[in-house]
Amino acid sequence: MSSSPAPDQTTLGALRDSGHVHKPVKAEVRDNLLARLAAGQTAFPGILGFDDTVLPQVERALLAGHDLVLLGERGQGKTRLIRTLVGLLDAWTPVVTGCEINDHPYAPVCVRCTRLVAELGDATPVSWKPRDERYGEKLATPDTSVGDLIGDVDPIKVAEGRTMGDPETVHYGLVPRTNRGIFSVNELPDLAERIQVALLNVLEERDIQVRGYPLRLPLDLLLVASANPEDYTNRGRIITPLKDRFGAEVRTHYPLALEDEVRLIRQEAVLDWPGTAVTVPDHLLQVVARYTRLVRDSPQVDQRSGVSARFAVASAETVAASAVRRAAITGEPQAVARVCDLPAVVAASRGKVEFESAEEGRELEVLHHLLRRATADAFRALLAGTDLSGLQSRFDEGATVETGDLVPAAELLGRLGTVPGLAVLLARLGVEEESPGLAAAAVEFALEGLHLNRRLAKDEIAGRTVYGG
Predict the structure, then answer these.
(1) Bridge partners (DSSP) listed for residue 181
(2) What pairs with residue 104 in β-bridges?
(3) Can you tell me whether residue 224 is helix, strand or coil?
(4) Between 20 and 30 A from 332 (CA), which of 71, 147, 391, 434?
């Protein structure tokens, strides 16, 4: 809801006296976008990684007054981006009180409001609608009907005595009920082609027709749709006349920079649960981000389906959950994720990836391999050049250290004893406050990195991991 209070004008006459100016919704969006750009403010809060690619195209489309289609693989933030457009509407807008399709008091279009304004004039009651209530959304499914989107005859109104030709017998669908707002159709190609035809008039003539009535209802709205590239040829397609009526098509993408992937995980993952304190160090989030990008680029994975950003978010949440589980079982005072929690993401994320048919039966093997690569890459990126000889020397004489997802941090550090260069290791990983949990997480990351670079041996037995020389 808008944080500012609604204006106090409650009649058409008071609205005119206030100097209010009626603007079409696209002009409203354009003016607010220009104001944001001029002030150096972001127009799309929470959208990461699109600053130099997608967002400029969306801004141009909105400034041109175009309806648009966002085209991209699953989990690229298309719906999230569409929902931020609501912030470009005015905080409040006046409507004729009781109108089903949000008629502006200056320019009513439905039969009821036209009659009301003609009868009452300046005494016509006015209400104020906040921007959040001016957004409508429909996930396109094969069972969606024209009545759902546009409207249909209401049998109850007919039974009350109205004739079939009376426009007031119409029960409006989602699109006209979002009049003077923004309407989104998610996964547009999944909409049956005969239903897509119903949107042709909405996009071009800006009106709707119901059951052959001579009903011309000019709509004022911004229509935005999302689609996956494969949908043009697989599950369905956007019919050519409808594609032609959209003013702009904008291609989205997964985060191009590793930093954006990490920021996205940190923003979207639920890592701070009520009543439960859990810490996922940045170096582990980087491992998860690198793992996601390796899976996304792997030739064993079906690239047509993509690897959603939800894959990375769910993986980070699984790592956090593993740390919380360890703390609950062992009584650790602080739940801190460690490298031993990473393997849990493989089984949990297997169902979120489509593999090539030749890899059937090898899915877990492929994912484990990519996770090891991601860990090794993160180790080299974060700890390259760090002197870890003091840690490694503890294993040169045959000593071993056992760890695992149920080994508390204090127990792991106790088995290692004093670790030379621990302060330097923590500093390189960006750990500002030293605690047993964070120290154990840093040491275990270093041990795993040394193993992956063939400087330590490692055995995994019944859920336990043993590092040795």
Answers:
(1) 221
(2) 107
(3) strand
(4) 391
